[in-house]
Every structure is written in structure tokens, then in C-alpha cells.
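Provenance and format

Records in this collection were gathered into a single text stream. Each protein contributes a sequence line and a C-alpha cell line. The two records reproduced below are adjacent in the stream.
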Amino acid sequence: MEDEIEIPSWQMDIVIERMEDYKKNPDQVLDFDQTMDEIKSEMDSE
């Protein structure tokens, strides 16, 4: 049996807000993999 994790309502509100923002502006999102590559690259160059 899998344990259920309760997500606080304030956190769900943030997720819902972000999803609404995404639906309104789908072209203004960052690609996760590309962003992670950029962060790693910046860390390596320090």
C-alpha cells in the first residue's frame, strides 16, 4: 500500500496559479533541461 502525502492548500494554490500563467503565456517558459545545462555550465566556469 502506498502512503499518501498531503499537499498543503497554499502550495496547491501556487501550482494552480503557475499553471494558469503558463496557459496564458506558453511561450514564456524555460526548458528545464536547457536551464539545468546553463546552470551547470556557469558553475563549472567559476
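Adjacent record:
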Amino acid sequence: MYDVGIIGAGPAGYTLAIRLAQKGKKVILFENKYVGGTCLNFGCIPTKSILHSCSLFDKFKTCEKFGVTAENISFDFQKIYERKNTVVEKMRKSLEKLILSYDVDIIYEEAFIESSEKIKCKSGTYDCENIVVATGSEPAEIKTLKRNNFVLNSDDILELTELPKSIAIIGSGAIGIEWARIFSSLGSQVYLIEMADKLLPTADFEVSQRIERILKRNKVKIYTSNYVEKVENNSVVLKSGDKIQAEKILVATGRKAVLPKNNNNNTLETSEKGSATVDEIYKNKSGVYVIGDASSKIQLAHNAIHQALYLAEYLCEGKIPRNYVIPSVIYGEPEIAWAGKTEQELAGTNYKKFLYPISALGKAQSDGEIEGFVKLLSVNDIIAGVHIISPEASSLICEFILPIQNKLKISELKEICHAHPTYSEGSFESILGLCSEPLTVMKGV
């Protein structure tokens, strides 16, 4: 008998398998496709590879102002995609070796929950003292838009063989924004359609406003408070009456949970949206545990990893999982990141706000990367929310997770010395700004 059987080898599943093995547990891991899940194979990693190619291309387009001359700048779309595939395959092989190095058994077959202590697959039935479902998620669909060569989801878009001259992207969350950045960088005409009244609906309103400005500067055409009413002969008709002619449509309206197909029919209790319901220890009423996108409202790889670490602690030591702050990041130039409360969520409370322009930093001026800001929100001398648009925002955000999570006082954070010149000085300056003591912002501004 295995101590733990895990269905799904994405960030939640493989992290849990490794940590349990480190703690001396006998673990078996089931995966019906590739280790690494959506993040490694169809999401985070391949898109970051493509975005990096786009970033290099954009930098070469403006290199003359830095005294560098480059003639006949161009790109090879197929080679950009080939590199993406190479990166993914390399990381997948490395991950498999990593998992196996901890003596975790991997079964590459579709797995079913036979009972709360039995997992069944083609090769046989495996007894497990505990079963964990970490089967992830898949692209959500729009019922009125049938998936085909014209209407694509975020998996399909990674299989393109040539660059579309134009594309309509439905949804302006992380997936929609990142692909809008990719295609606009490479010269495609991008139409971005969002049902909400602003881009990035869950973000702080000033982040939404700024990213809209940046995208418009890159000639992205934006339609907010709108949706696709119908598609006629590859013409996209919006609720507003606007008609868009595009070579492709990308549906980027989020993701939905994937759960094992069970022999006993609906073994797992689910919510109205189809994700598994769990309690504070990630346990479903069926008696099995569910972590990651399959049960979480926040479908992010780093959230899944953290749930896996906490579940490992519970299974081995009985520790109850704690609450933690989850950062959100959107990649491209410049990066976008946030954590904690938005200003609209704090409306009606006695909060303080300071918005520090990245352009005031020596590092930003040296790099020619002056677009963005660090926005801090505080309540009672405690940081309540942080919202960043800046180079390296994905790293800068981490500086604020510790004080938000542990409710450290802003007066204490002022004591931290930041290297000069760096983008992290924007964090320092924004903290000083909340205390009305900024050093690189004009008096009275």
C-alpha cells in the first residue's frame, strides 16, 4: 500500500509528491499526459518563452537611441515557437528526473477514484492510505463559439504554424493581456474584447487604466463593456454593433476545473461551477483531498504549490494549513503585479495611498524603461495592498508579501536598506511616500 496516491502531475501534484517523499512517505503519482501540467506545457512557461522573444525584438526596434545600430531587424515566427517547444521539452525531462530521484512511482495512465483508498487505471488498482486529486484545469469555453481552426483556445494558440495578420482576443485577464502583447509586438492587428467596463477586471482601477493606455499605444483596439454576439463568415459581431474582421479568434475567458472521471459517478462533491469543494484541510466530503486548480478559486501555479506544501505538512505532521497572501503577475513589457486589496475594495475605509512613478528612478532612466508605478495602500500603518507596473514587477511584488501577510508596520519597513540604483528603490520610495517622506518626488506633488 502507498501512503499517498496523487492524481495529476502539475505544480500541485509534483510538489506534493516531492515534499511527501522528502518526509519519508511512499508516493505514487498518476499522469495521463505530461508532468508539469498546464503551467509547464501549455501555460506559464511556453508563453514566457514567446514573450521573451518579443521583448528582444522590441528592444532591437528602439536600440538606436542607446547608441546601438541594428539593420534589417526581423523575426522568424516558426523559430520562436520551436524555441518554446525546446524549452518546454527540456524542462519536462528535467522535472521527470527530479521526481524520480525521490523514488516516487509515476504511472502515465488516466486514473480513476475507485474509493477513498483505491485508485484504478489501465494497469491495475492501487491501494493508497490517502488520495489527492490535483488534476488542474482546462480552458473555459463560450457555448456560442464552436472551437475550430478559426476559434482557438489558449492551448490551440500554442500550435500556430504562422502568425495571423489580425486576431480578436476575448477576455482581458492574464491570458488575454499577455497574448495581446505578443501579437501586437509581432505586428498583428489585435482586437481586445472585454465584457467588464475595464481591462483586467480584478485589478486596481489605476492598473487597468495604465495597461489600457500602454496597449493603445501599441495599436491594440479595445472594446470594453462588450461581448461577441455572433460570428458570421469569420466576421466577429459585437453587442455594440461593431464588426471585426480577424484571421483568428482567441477565447481567453478563464479556465475551468478538471476532475477525474470516476467509476462510481460523481464521487467528488462539486460547486455550481464544477470545481471540487474542500474544507480547511483541502478535503472533499468524498474523503479524498483536492488541491490546485481543481478546487481553488485562484487558479495560479504558485497557489497550487503552496497548497501542496501545506497539505504535506498536514498529512505528515497534522498541521492545519494557514492563510497566505497570493500575488498576481502578468508578464510582458512592463510587467504587472499586485497583492492584497485594491483601492476600490478599500473604498469607505480610512486608508492612505501613495503612487510612486517609476520614471523618478535613476535605474529606470538609465534603462529607458520609464513606464509604470508602485502604488501602495495602507490602513492603520499596515500595508493593505500593493500594485506595480514596472520592469521586474514579478520580483518586486515579493518584497511586499511578507509585510502584508505578517502585518508589519510601515514604520519598520522604512529601516530596510535598498541597493542603488535598482527598481527596488521604487518600493522603498513608495513606503517613504506613505509616511509623507519621499526623497525623489517634488514637494507638493
